[in-house]
Amino acid sequence: MRHNRYRPGKRTLMVLLSIGLLAWLIVGTWHVYKPMPGGLDVATPWVPAEDVTFLADTTYTAPNGKRVSDQEIFDAIADMVAGARELLVLDMFLFNDFAGQASDGHRPLSAELTTALVEQQRRQTDFDTVLITDPVNTVYGSIESDHLERLRSAGVRVITTDLDRLRDPNALWSGLWRLCCRWLESEPGSGWLPNPLAEDRASTFDAWMRLLNFKANHRKTVIADRGENWIGLVTSANPHDASSRHGNVALRFAGPAALDLLSTEKAAASLSGAERAFTLPSPPRGDYFDVNEGRLRVLTEARIREAAVAIIEAAEAGERLDLAMFYLAHREVIEALKRAAERGVKLRALLDPNHDAFGRTKSGIPNRPVGMELHRAGMEVRWCDTDGEQCHSKLLLHHKADGSARLLLGSANFTRRNLDNFNMETNVDWQAPAGHPALQAASRFFDTRWSNENGERHSLPFTEYADDSRWRYWRYRLMEATGLSTF
Q1: Are residues 302 and 264 in the same domain?
Q2: Number of domains, the chain
Q3: What pLDDT does 100 receive?
Q4: Is the peptide bond before 366 cis (omega within 30 degrees of 0)?
Q5: Strands 67-70 and 87-92
Q6: Which CATH number characterizes residue 430's domain?
Q7: Residue span of the structural domain in which 196 resides
């Protein structure tokens, strides 16, 4: 009799649990596949390229045994800032001094860029500066950012990206979070939990809940006017002090492609409710572009994956593909690389060993299991020789038989999160004519890193980090498929 008395309650509980699980499943699935916000996931039209320059930051061991960092990218960005006259737009993922100070051997990139933007904003009349950035820089609302507050005080328009409007890569967590915790908000400085990013300041419960969604505005772009012309820059580098010794790449260019890049950032601003952050200028009159510089287009989000696969599939026997990548995990890209090897394409993959990040030891996932997979498919694989810093470049270069090439670089790692419309990403796709100085610079960058030229040590042989663990391989596959990862 007592068993029958409690059965209705148990039945009600089971119904409620079933409804809750169904809601979790529906919400989680919807936010993985929901329509993308307008202006994202775009490929701009091919346009003539102008004033194309390849830039790189590299850290290596010199012949005398000392570690050396050669840096170009943020010096070039400083020149763009100083030369702007009417409008300057930046979209930067990491813009902070977390986990590192200049006294620790890091360059204070965040302070340098903040000072340059403030000075330029004050120096110019009728001048607009817009910075679009990710909420990671306030640890999702846990703390105030001194740099961002200084920019706001100087009149810079700072836009924090509304990540909630993006798709969710981690459906198991995000489905639950959107049901129970999305509405939580906390005041900066009210944290009481350990902070995974700014270790000297506490984090809030809400910030941890948002962090576990594992998505970001991961773009790194700069657009500035220069008289009647416009200059754009797309890079893998962040103005983040602890990242200042990372290896990175960038492409700077002028002309219509810079305006196309600006239009993608207009969409990024609108995503977060800042539709009137800036006005798009009219395209320049006349056709004054040098067709000898090839053609160029801007890609965002999943269009980057489409271009990467197309570049790999277009490579023919005897041609070469050079890949330098911080994270390589996307199955479609990996399968395309394996097919290219079967066709007789010479492929060189220079990968970060995923050994450490900002003082924390990492497991080697995903690159070491993927490196073994590529090695077994007959590809050449080498590891960047890192010492605390990261081999943070994201570059794919197809050397064609006629001497021309196609170069794809930017913010996007080759992972599901970066290439399948979860993160916001920007890359540039350049079809480069044979002999172009920027193409030669990109080729030298890779060759030097690959071959340890001039007695310098940039990379290590595959055997240094070879990993044939089946457990780590299938762990990587599970993490990549489910989004339960930081890559």
Answers
A1: no
A2: 2
A3: 47
A4: yes
A5: unpaired
A6: 3.30.870.10
A7: 47-271
In a domain, 16, yes or no: no
Residue 219 DSSP SS3: coil
Residues 224-241: tens digit of each pLDDT: 998 889 999 999 999 999
State the Cα–Cα distance between residues 271 and 133, nearest whole angstrom. 12
Tokens linked to 471:
């457990």
pTM, entire model: 0.94
CA-nearest of 322, 260, 280, 357 to 87 is 280
CA gap 61, 484 in Å, rounded = 35
Cβ count within 10 A of residue 405:
24
Average pLDDT, the chain: 92
Asked if residue 54 lies in contact with residue 438, where contact means CB atoms within 8 angstroms, the answer is yes
Alpha-carbon gap, residue 313 to 306, rounded angstroms: 11
Coil/strand/helix, residue 482: helix
The torsion defined by the Cα of 272, 278, 283 and 289, in degrees rounded to 10, comes to -80
Return all residues near 30 (Cβ < 8 A) that are at least 6 apart: none
- Smallest CA-to-CA distance from 459 within 249, 247, 250 is with 247
pLDDT for 320 beyond 60: yes
